[in-house]
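Lecture notes, unit on protein representations.

Consider one protein chain, 211 amino acids long.
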Amino acid sequence: MSAVQERAPHAEATPIEFWFEFASNYSYLSVMRIEACTARRGVPVRWRPFLLGPIFRSFGWKTSPFVLQKAKGDYVWQDMARQCRKYDLAWTPPSAFPRSALLPLRVALVGAERDWIGAYCRRVMSINFGEDREIDTNKVVTEVLAQLGLPARQIIDEAQSEENKLRLRQQTEMAAQRGIFGAPMFFVGEDMFWGNDRLDDALDHCVRGPA
């Protein structure tokens, strides 16, 4: 057994920042497993929702590179099917990609430091990539919050406030300033880890520090 595996579940560890977007298919994989993974390792997680669209536009892209490059897109959907089997996740190839997720992300920003953030994000992602349904509607977000026993109208009103809209724009600007070019992205201090397949490496870094 490795030193990391032997570490006490609640031992002190560096937090992991989790930058994600609901339109991102690989973020789906990480959203669905990050709370369980961090809990096993005793690592605090900081949820950082942001908008990928402005990041892509800064590169001169009008949409996802998985759409712009057909061969890459074809590969990604095959890979997603394999990865979802690996993690035992529902997978329905999205009929619209990338989907708008502005309201769900604003709500995620409201909930980022509240105890319902993980359950909320998992449900939104399941609707998008497991059920192939639109997520950027008041009806769907209300449904998700109500299923969690939360005051949907109050949370949505807070999410749609000018202050919170500005916060999401600022968070997206911060993502660009930190060099984020895709999602999911993880930071451990200033060290960056890109992609769902780097989540475990990032958690090792949280617990053990730099190699």
